[in-house]
TrEMBL record:
It comes from the Bacteria. Residues 135-218 form the Cobalamin biosynthesis central region domain. SUPFAM superfamilies: CbiG N-terminal domain-like, CobE/GbiG C-terminal domain-like. GO terms for biological process: cobalamin biosynthetic process. Its EC number is 3.7.1.12. Residues 222-339 form the CobE/GbiG C-terminal domain. Gene3D superfamilies: 3.40.50.11220, CobE/GbiG C-terminal domain. InterPro entries: CbiG_hydrolase, CbiG_mid, CbiG_N, CobE/GbiG_C, CobE/GbiG_C_sf, GbiG_N_sf. It holds the Pfam family CbiG_N. It comes from Clostridium scindens (strain ATCC 35704 / DSM 5676 / VPI 13733 / 19). The gene is cbiG. Residues 50-130 form the Cobalamin synthesis G N-terminal domain. This is Cobalt-precorrin-5A hydrolase. The keyword Hydrolase applies.
Amino acid sequence: MQIAVISFTKNGKELADKIAGCLSEEGYEVTADIKCNGARGSITESLGEWTGRMFRKCYALIYVGAAGIAVRAIAPYVESKTSDPAVLVADEKGSYIIPVLSGHIGGANELAVSLAAGIGGTPVITTATDIHHLWAVDKFAQENHLWIADMAKAKRISARLLAGEEIIVDCTCEENRIKGEPPEGIRMVDSQSQEKEPDICIGIHKNPSWRHTLYLVPRAAVVGIGCRKGTDAGKIEKAIERTLNREGIFQSSLCKLASIDIKAGEEGILRYCRNHSLELETYSAGELLKAEGEFHASAFVEKITGIDNVCERSAVYASGNGRLVVEKQVDDGVTVAVAQRDWRIIFE
């Protein structure tokens, strides 16, 4: 991951180089620039231009200098806590490391703690849940690679925890896949055994009758796909979208598409994957025969591909022989099935 550091004086540059060295040892790719008239190697672009360029491509930006400089520089580029990079400020002596943007999801708080330990400074953490030692839903989601479906609801969860209220959480993974103990204020339940909707649901499905629930979504769904040769991406898009909507599965839960190897060059499937930043995995008929479970057999499909079912077998095999949650669906010549791979959550 890339981190960009910038300073504005000679003393600041010395600390910036120290920061760069410290972070490089932790495996980050770090650049350290200076913006200072007369300083050797000073960047020629404006601070705003530098910030815009780094904001788009870096995991974190670190400003060595006054916090106001950083705030004014990043202001035009701030969009969302779910996508903005971590932004930190360090004073020239390295006494204090202050996260100013994306403390939880972007990792600024964690980076500040780690960096402060490396250079002998003090992290200044200001997020309310941290200073009160409460569970933070956005940090939990980030650590467990969960997509937050509604940031407004996430903020309300934090506000309720700060007010001392209990938060009810329903996690749809197997009980033995929940590691660690839920922290104070969090009560785990099984939605099948309760009438009240939970405050948080962790899983790939949505419940249309739950209007106030915050969904945290793992990337655990694998779509098995089959189609006629030359099927365009639009048909594939509609077939998958209709299947997910009908079954109440979040699009954001998809982690990959899978099919038989003769579809490895199918442009419609490949374009769908590119459009949604998904990987396509293909397997031989022999490999797909190893998929475990009962599948809808088709003599026609077997005649063409050498195997009785493509979409269901592909989904199950690519998910590590996970659970088939959507059986074969046929939509305008496209066959779709969905399997859920094994996943877990960890309370630290």
